[in-house]
Amino acid sequence: MDELKIIELRESVFEDNNADAALLRQSLKEEKTFLINLMSAPGSGKTTTLLALLKKLAPKINVGVMEADIDSAVDAEAIAAAGVRSIQLHTGGMCHLDADMCRQGLRELDYEGTELIILENVGNLVCPAEFDTGAHMNMTILSVPEGHDKPLKYPLMYQTCNALIINKIDTLPYFDFDMDKAIAYAKMRNPEILVFPISAKTGEGIDALADWILGLI
Amino acid sequence: MDELKIIELRESVFEDNNADAALLRQSLKEEKTFLINLMSAPGSGKTTTLLALLKKLAPKINVGVMEADIDSAVDAEAIAAAGVRSIQLHTGGMCHLDADMCRQGLRELDYEGTELIILENVGNLVCPAEFDTGAHMNMTILSVPEGHDKPLKYPLMYQTCNALIINKIDTLPYFDFDMDKAIAYAKMRNPEILVFPISAKTGEGIDALADWILGLI
Q1: Which long-range contacts (CB under 8 A, 24 or more apart) does A107-113 make?
Q2: How far apart are CA B68 and CA A93, in angstroms?
Q3: Nearest of A78, A51, A40, A65 to residue A166 by alpha carbon
Q4: Are B73 and B126 in contact (CB under 8 A)?
Q5: Residue-level pLDDT at A14
Q6: What is the ipTM of this complex?
Q7: Residue numbers in B near A123 (CB within 8 A)
Q8: Which of A38, B118, B142, B207 is most buried, with most CB under 10 Å away?
């Protein structure tokens, strides 16, 4: 295994992030690399979900991961330990990634021939939703312990995501989580959002999510 | 019960938030009102913890609550339903509160004679830690399902808080949460941080936390 790369991101100089994101998206498309931007609150299980997904995806396609965090490299280390190419991006205190920060990471990932790259964004339900990273698809995770009311409180996150993963469903018996309400509130924000209930821990629902992702590429 | 007040906050015009926060803190001190800024990730149980705390505090002192959210009024409604004076602050998409936004809320709370005001900040481990609200004390909640590694990833939140509440300890059997590691990582960020393990749901640990808060006022 190569040594883990930790990239200290620089603040972007581009004024129009939307235009920059559209450029990045187009150039990745030409290179036949599909980019997924995975967002959620801290602790909803982004890395565990990624690990479960990579088990299904890595034997079938060439996949890479970019882990964004304010500090630490624990997530990228976990992904690398699973044998998947990954780098750790440090945002230097910044609460989100934009397209140019994403591009800085891509440059270091050395992704030629990679069919799928998953960007694990900073754990935050607010700011990451405001910045287009250039990804072809946005996914968010809501975990059962967080409660079903989150789409009421963080509207933009659900509006900007194509898919909602509801994680930790193995813990449903221990929490007052109303699955129907969670889905209804999410669809109130975004009627087109696809919902995948999973348990990254037990593996339940991972096949359906992995198959859906493979169908996009 | 009065009708619930929902305040749409305006962006602050003050350039030096730290100076403004110091002014607010001093003027509240002169008015004998103690302000607590409660921060955490979405879904870690800020409102449930507040409800459990208010049951202990409200019979003893004059207390008020300001609930900050990007959207919805579910939290302020829950607090008002418990018979405690509360208002809902809407940040208009903004990811944090600063001192002037806090002051805008205070003006509407009509807090003369209130000994304790608790501000429930926007659910976010990143941005709220960067802005002094003028509070006399900062508290953060880490809930067991989020995992013990959060102080590694969100250093500033733990550096700026006087107290760490570890919530949902009733769910410890269902998660791989290492209490010793959580406390060690938090103290790595802030050796002075006080730790209160609680379950807002069962009430465990709430007495100790309430007693400590009463001792500060």
Answers
A1: A108/A5, A108/A7, A109/A64, A109/A66, A109/A85, A111/A33, A111/A64, A112/A31, A113/A62
A2: 22
A3: A40
A4: no
A5: 79
A6: 0.91
A7: 41, 125, 153-154
A8: B142
List the beta bridge partners of residue A63.
A116
| B154:A127 CB<8 A | no
- Cα three-residue angle B17-B19-B20, rounded to 5 degrees: 60
Calculate how close chain B gets to A214, using CA atoms only, in Å: 29
- CB-CB under 8 Å, A93 with B95: no
Q: Which two tokens stand for residue A125?
A: 């339900």
Top residue of A124, A156, A201 to mutate, by most chain B CBs within 10 Å, is A124
Q: List the single residue in A44, A71, A152 with the smallest CB-CB distance to B153.
A: A71
The residue count for chain B: 217
Alpha-carbon distance B28 to nearest alpha carbon in chain A (angstroms): 29
Q: Which residue from A124, A130, A149 is facing B74, i.e. has the nearest CB?
A: A149
CATH of region B5-10+17-140+201-216: 3.40.50.300
> Edge to edge, what strands does the sheet with A163-167 contain?
A5-8, A85-90, A63-69, A116-120, A34-40, A137-143, A163-167, A194-197
* Phi, psi values for residue B142, rounded to 5°: -115, 125
- The tens digit of pLDDT for each residue in B15-39 reads 899 999 999 999 999 999 999 999 9
Look at residues A174, A145, A135, A141 and name the one whose alpha carbon lies nearest to residue A157: A141
Given its phi and psi angles, is residue A164 left (phi above 0), alpha (psi -120 to 50 degrees) or beta?
beta
Q: Which of these, A116, A143, A121, lies nearest to A212 by C-alpha position? A: A116
* Cβ-contact A130, A95 below 8 angstroms: no
Mean pLDDT of successive 10-residue segments in chain A (217 residues)? 81 88 98 98 97 97 96 92 94 92 94 96 96 98 97 96 98 97 98 98 98 97
